[in-house]
Design brief:
By secondary structure, the protein is mainly β. It has one helix at residues 277-288, and strands at residues 2-3, 20-25, 27-31, 35-41, 52-60, 70-75, 78-86, 88-93, 98-102, 106-110, 115-121, 128-136, 147-151, 157-160, 165-171, 173-174, 177-178, 189-195, 200-204, 210-217, 220-222, 225-227, 231-235, 243-248, 252-259, 267-269, 272-274. The chain has one domain (2-293): Jelly Rolls, CATH 2.60.120. The protein has 1 helix and 27 strands. Strands 1-14-15-18-25-20-23-2 form an 8-stranded mixed sheet, with no helix packed on it. Strands 3-4-5-12-7-10-13 form a 7-stranded antiparallel sheet, with no helix packed on it. A hairpin with a 3-residue loop joins strand 3 (27-31) and strand 4 (35-41). Bound molecules: fe (iii) ion.
Length: 294
């Protein structure tokens, strides 16, 4: 772990904390070759949580629930961010890239104009747990060249506050610590929070940023609202609010995600997310013509 606790952390000043607008329970589903997962952020929330398009939580001890993985499939028009808490997954893409995502690591992939890839477990037993988050691209960037980065766990900046919060900064910045990935336009913030019982954690954020918290261990309190395990809290964009404050009820773990909305039309067809139906039809034609393989 790249622990930055020795540097002086900047205080996140929150004077008017956001409240919880809605609690979401994910839908159990399967994707890829029979991988069991929970779709937490579904299509109906894409507008509300713009620029985020999807959040899947996967967590299984039985290899039958994950061993099939995600064989070759295409993407166009957005970014996929896979955070592997536990387990090992090998990815290959049509450009000839390959990488191993494991235990605390992140793969950040910008599909841009197109990629075909596979994501396959490289373990035959034991637990596999993590998240895949889809982040939209601005209209002007949807046809950019594909890009990806494998970020090993030790290269994710991490710090621990005096209040008992250990924070992994995947994207954006927190307490003056800059995360592993920065993005203009959508300005994603992606934090993994490990909180001791009673720990309080604050994060400043502008009121127009769309934000949510997903609790994957324990329970949090957010502005007096209890948010239990496997619940996503959508944080209200209250006028005048300047951040969020979380308090752990028992040892807890959660991801806190925020981004600047694009406010552009969203048209999704499976693994393609564009702005118009015509662009989706073009994408399907391009895929059939083999143009998504870089
Ligand atoms: Fe994929």
């Amino acid at each position: 772990m790249k622990d930055q606790t020795q540097v002086t952390l900047q205080q996140e000043v929150v004077t008017q904390a956001r409240t919880v607008e809605q609690l979401i329970i994910g839908q159990a589903t399967t994707d890829g070759d029979g991988v069991k997962l929970t779709r937490v952020l579904q299509q109906g929330l894409q507008k509300r949580l713009d620029p985020y398009l999807m959040l899947d939580a996967f967590g299984a001890d039985d290899p039958q629930d994950y061993i099939g993985g995600f064989p070759d499939h295409p993407h166009r028009g957005f970014e996929t961010i896979t955070y592997m808490l536990t387990g090992r997954m090998r990815h290959h893409d049509s450009a000839g890239n390959s990488g191993l995502l494991q235990n605390g690591g992140v793969q950040w992939m910008t599909a841009g104009r197109g990629v075909i890839h596979s994501e396959l477990p490289e373990q035959e037993e034991g637990r596999m747990e993590g998240f895949q988050l889809w982040l939209n691209l601005a209209a002007k960037d949807k046809m950019m060249a594909p890009w990806y980065k494998d970020i090993q766990s030790e290269n994710i900046p991490q710090f621990t506050t005096a209040e008992g919060a250990t924070v992994r900064v995947i994207a954006g910045s927190s307490h003056g610590i800059t995360g592993a990935v920065q993005r203009e336009i959508t300005e994603p913030l992606y934090l993994d929070l490990h909180l001791d019982d009673g720990a309080v954690f604050s994060q400043a954020m502008a009121e127009e940023m769309n934000a949510f918290v997903y609790v994957y261990r324990g329970e949090l309190q957010i502005a007096g609202q209890s948010v239990g395990q496997q619940r996503m809290a959508i944080l209200r964009n209250e006028p005048g609010s300047d951040g969020v404050t979380l308090t752990a009820k028992g040892a807890s773990r959660a991801i806190l995600v925020a981004g600047r909305p694009l406010r552009e039309p969203i048209v999704q067809y499976g693994p393609f997310v564009m702005n118009t139906q015509a662009e989706i039809l073009q994408t399907i034609n391009d895929y059939r013509a083999g143009k998504l393989a870089a």
